[in-house]
Write a structure and sequence with these properties.
With 451 residues, the chain is an alpha/beta fold. Helices cover 33% and strands 21% of the residues. A 9-stranded mixed beta sheet has the order 7-8-6-9-10-11-12-13-14, sandwiched between helices. α5 crosses α11. Belongs to the MurCDEF family. It catalyses: UDP-N-acetyl-alpha-D-muramoyl-L-alanine + D-glutamate + ATP = UDP-N-acetyl-alpha-D-muramoyl-L-alanyl-D-glutamate + ADP + phosphate + H(+). Cell wall formation. Catalyzes the addition of glutamate to the nucleotide precursor UDP-N-acetylmuramoyl-L-alanine (UMA).
């Protein structure tokens, strides 16, 4: 870990705990900062805060008192989920107090070069593929971090010059960077998302583009060349542009040429040997191949991963086959585009399980992808909206249930051998479940109970 004196004796407020806040507070404390932690959850219900208190860190729990801003903080490290409209955050910005997220701290202390991956969809799959490709080549010692697992600032403290940090990054995290600069940045795609946080698609896209704002001519930016809007968005970048495309042969990037996965014109392997299903995953694969090749990973290691990798948990994850029915867990499909991608991956009859948090949007955009859906089972706040869309799509069998667990046996009863039973909610989980992972695990358990 790099030693830095820039936080020594500085008065810093860590706002919001969860994993990122705990890691940030502990790290800053070890770097000599005077840390105060503020979390909304009461102290007696907050083991994380209690643990920090035992380290000698000042803890204020139960509310976010605006009076904290009068204590002379020089910096605020914000939990990514706390919006900038929060009175404490907005007040800090009005007073000129810098507000960052913990990925900025990770960059400042990491001895390892960073590969940063962002985008609306495909981040987790692309991050996992890059990590696996490096791991398959014995010359590399990758560490995976960010939204996909361990907090980046925690991993960075253990990273050495022999490691490579592969970090999945959200728009929320990227809004809070100052000097953060990945050696290789990847933007998988940009679609409308998280408008309840960002307000507009333009602000959301701008946050994603922050991944390249500090890159230099010695760095690389891997982007989806099939999105003209994205290419325009990152036109300011100083990094070397490495495009990938599923539709165009690219001599200067990553693409499919004559049926072969190719990078800079070099053939790596036949597309037909890839085990990961779905056209949407081809984008993720091409982006990952570009990152791996730029780092010097061997073609043999890349081929080993792409001929064995079958997906990330909760992302079009094959769960089981029961009496000729195949079950897939796509709980990570928290928006319409992700659900479209999952539906388009199957040619068999599909029974779709969908529903969740109502963010005020409609679902008509799902209709073109529902051509193989023979039945829909809905749940959650958006159940009635999805039922309307199913009717418009001409789906005759529509059932509403209380939750995901109850949806599974209903789907099985409606299915025939050869059918796909797909959980792809097209919505966030927070109306009924703490996370999409919890929702997906409940689906998996319900499938196993059928046996």
């Amino acid at each position: 870990m790099k030693k830095t004196n820039q936080y020594q004796h500085k008065k810093i407020l860590v706002l919001g705990l969860a994993k990122s806040g705990v890691s940030a507070a502990s790290l800053l404390h070890s770097l000599g900062a005077f840390v105060t932690v503020n979390d909304f959850k009461p102290l007696d219900e907050n083991p994380e805060a209690q643990g920090l208190l035992e380290q000698g860190i000042k803890v204020i729990c139960g509310s976010h008192p605006i009076e904290l801003l009068d204590e002379g903080f020089e910096l605020i490290v914000k939990n990514p989920g706390i919006p900038y409209t929060n009175p404490l955050v907005a007040g800090a910005i009005d007073r000129g107090i810098p507000v960052i997220t913990e990925v900025e701290l990770a960059y400042q202390v990491s001895d390892a070069p960073i590969v940063g991956i962002t985008g609306t969809n495909g981040k987790t799959t692309t991050t996992t593929l890059i990590f696996n490709m490096l791991q398959a080549d014995k010359e590399f010692h990758p560490l995976i971090a960010g939204n996909i697992g361990t907090v980046a600032s925690e991993v960075a403290q253990k990273a050495t010059e022999d490691n490579q940090m592969i970090v999945e990054l959200s728009s929320f995290q990227l809004m809070g960077i100052q000097s953060f600069k990945p050696h290789i940045a990847v933007i998988t795609n940009i679609y409308e998302a998280h408008l309840d946080y960002h307000g507009t698609k333009q602000e959301y896209a701008k946050a994603k583009a922050n991944i390249t704002k500090n890159q230099s001519e010695e760095d690389y930016l891997i982007v989806n060349a099939d999105q003209d809007e994205l290419i325009e968005l990152i036109s300011f970048s100083k990094a070397k542009l490495i495009p990938f495309s599923t539709t165009t042969n690219l001599a200067n990037g990553s693409s499919i040429i004559n049926g072969m996965v190719s990078f800079l014109g070099e053939e790596i392997m036949p597309k037909s040997d890839i085990t990961l299903p779905g056209d949407h995953n081809l984008e993720n694969i091409l982006a990952a191949v570009a990152a791996a090749k730029l780092l010097g990973v061997s073609n043999q290691a890349i081929r080993k991963v792409l001929t064995t990798f079958k997906g990330v948990k909760h992302r079009t994850q094959f769960v089981d086959e029961i009496s000729g029915r195949r079950f897939f867990n796509d709980s990570k499909a928290t928006n319409i585009l992700a659900a479209q991608s999952a539906l388009n991956a199957f040619n068999e009859p599909v029974i779709l399980l969908a529903g969740g948090l109502d963010r005020g949007n409609g679902f008509d955009e799902l209709i073109p992808a529902m051509k193989n859906v023979k039945a829909m089972i809905t749940f959650g706040q958006t159940a009635s909206k999805l039922e309307e869309v199913a009717q418009k799509a001409g789906i005759e069998i529509i059932k509403r249930v209380d939750n995901v667990e109850k949806a599974v046996p209903v789907a099985f009863d409606l299915s025939n051998p050869g059918d796909v039973i797909l959980l792809s909610p097209a919505c966030a989980s927070w109306d009924q479940y703490k996370t999409f992972e919890v929702r997906g695990d409940i689906f998996i358990d319900a499938v196993h109970k059928l046996k």
